[in-house]
Amino acid sequence: MANYPEKRLRRLRYNPIVRDLVRETILTKNDLIYPLFVAPGENFRKEISSMPNVYQLSIDNIVKECKELVSLGIKAIILFGIPEHKDEVGSDAYSENGIIQKAIRAIKSKVKNLLIITDVCLCEYTSHGHCGILKGEEILNDETVSLLVKEAVSHAKAGADLIAPSDMMDGRILEIRKGLDENGFKNIPIMSYAVKYASGYYGPFREAAESTPAFGDRKSHQMDVANSLEALREAESDISEGADIIMVKPAGAYLDIIKSVKDKYQMPTAAYQVSGEYSMIKAAGKLGWIDEERVMMESLIAIKRAGADIILTYFAKDVAKYLDRK
Ligand SMILES: [Zn+2]
Fold it and tell me: What is the largest CA-CA distance in the chain?
């Protein structure tokens, strides 16, 4: 191979059309999933103070929002619920008339061509804010898994298109797959939050989903931020249990993890650009310290370049508008 002066890497950078021809990573609307927070009540709309332009919405407003998303060309949402009543065992999570079940039915009856993904965990529904059933301060794994199965099946019965367990209990993918199959939902895919870290970047989400634990933290089930080989073991176990798509969360600070999971398993891979990632870009943009739109696109292209096929992001609407302008 020739070297300088014969070889000149800048040749492909002078002309913008050539740059377009050789670009390796292209972000499209098809890559995006938009998270929505469903709240009780009617005509309710409350901005989350730490997440500008992100709202808790009552079901009627969620339906309006979904229509807008479809018109923008966004094809998939993921729902998080804020129930009216919380209890020790998170009953609303698997009730036929739970907030998510009602929201799914409302959206399905009024909006076409939108994929409804549901987050499956208990922390938004328990009075103590933990992801499972407690015995003292311990989160019981297997008892929690049986409730997650009920939750997943009830989402599917309400009309969910894809189930996304985020709880990080051991064995839940296997049991949820079994539960879905036994109830006639063998074609509903599972996107598992396979590699989910105990991250400080979730701060603003806790406000949005009202799911801050009453004591302690999530370090007994979510992963230590210092570990990467463990990420492969987590991904491998969820794949062997039947996950169709595996997710890494958060995204921006974990590009190495996305890449190693994608390289090793070659599975459809999702990454969640979490609330803290969104809020930091928004805040710095507001202060005029960075060009918000440019950094938004750069952060998402980097996540895709690392190996994510699918990105969950609060920027989905902004990206759709940006792409329409280009
Ligand atoms: Zn949880």
Answer: 71
| C-alpha separations of 162 from 115, 191, 285 in Å | 8, 7, 34
Give the pLDDT confidence score for residue 210 in this predicted structure.
85
Catalytic residue check, 196: yes
User: Ligand 1 centroid vs 66 CA: distance in angstroms?
Assistant: 24
Neighbours of 143 (CB within 10 A): 14
Q: Which residues of the chain have pLDDT under 70?
A: 1
| Catalytic residue selected from 249, 282, 304, 317 | 249
- pLDDT value at residue 82: 96
CA-only gyration radius of the chain, Å:
20
Q: What separation in Å is there between the alpha carbon of 124 and the centre of ligand 1?
A: 7
Among the options 196, 262, 304, 317, which is catalytic?
A: 196
Which residues, other chains included, contact 147 with Cβ-Cβ below 8 Å and sequence gap of 6+? 89, 90, 93, 94, 122, 132, 133
Residue 291's pLDDT is: 98
- Which residues, 6 or more positions from 315, have their beta carbon under 8 angstroms from its beta carbon? 273, 278, 281, 296, 300
Distance from the CA of 287 to the center of ligand 1, in angstroms?
32
AA letter at 27: L
Can you say whether the dihedral through the CA atoms of 84, 85, 89, 92 is positive or negative?
A: negative
CA distance 299 to 313: 11
Distance, in Å, from the CA atom of 204 to the CA atom of 185, rounded to the nearest integer, reads: 34
Quick one: residue 277, left, alpha or beta (phi over 0 = left, psi -120 to 50 = alpha)? alpha
* Ligand 1 mean position, distance from CA 166 (Å): 6
Distance of CA 154 to the CA centre of its chain: 20
